């Protein structure tokens, strides 16, 4: 009886831990070239889709910049507060089917987000045809 209870408890904790892993939360973005932290992004769910917006930047010179190269309703929006990840859906172990905007050049790419094994690292990948760029963001605790 005690062995069954212990086995149930272990299975419950494993199941709970696997289902608790979510990309929703705050993430620190890391500059590809310097390795320095660039911003804090809030990844959130709305109407069953995943979105991400920049909520803070570490460089004070960027804090009041606008997305001057962006198109449409993003044109001339402030970088802080900008929703730049849009419309991703869960597809197995990844989130895809949406887009990511690079505020530095105003270009939009297909996007895929995936939690790494430790769930404190988010793999962020932007695609253009067969070419892609990958960043690894760290969860803010």
TrEMBL record:
Protein name: DUF2147 domain-containing protein
Species of origin: Winogradskyella marina
Domain DUF2147 as annotated: residue spans: 25-139
Chain segments annotated as coiled-coil in the UniProt record: none
Lineage: Bacteria, Pseudomonadati, Bacteroidota, Flavobacteriia, Flavobacteriales
Listed InterPro entries: DUF2147
């Amino acid at each position: 009886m005690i062995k069954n209870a212990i086995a149930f408890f272990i299975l419950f904790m494993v199941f709970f831990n696997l289902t608790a892993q979510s990309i929703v939360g705050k993430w620190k973005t890391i500059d590809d070239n310097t390795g320095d932290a660039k911003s804090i992004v809030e990844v959130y769910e709305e109407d069953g889709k995943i979105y991400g917006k920049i909520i803070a930047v570490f460089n004070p010179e960027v804090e009041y910049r606008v997305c001057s190269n962006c198109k449409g309703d993003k044109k001339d929006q402030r970088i802080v507060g900008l929703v730049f990840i849009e419309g991703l859906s869960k597809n197995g172990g990844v989130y895809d089917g949406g887009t990511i905007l690079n505020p530095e050049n105003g270009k939009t790419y297909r996007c895929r987000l995936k939690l790494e094994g430790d769930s404190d690292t988010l793999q962020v990948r932007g695609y253009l045809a067969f070419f892609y760029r990958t960043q690894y963001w760290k969860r803010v605790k």
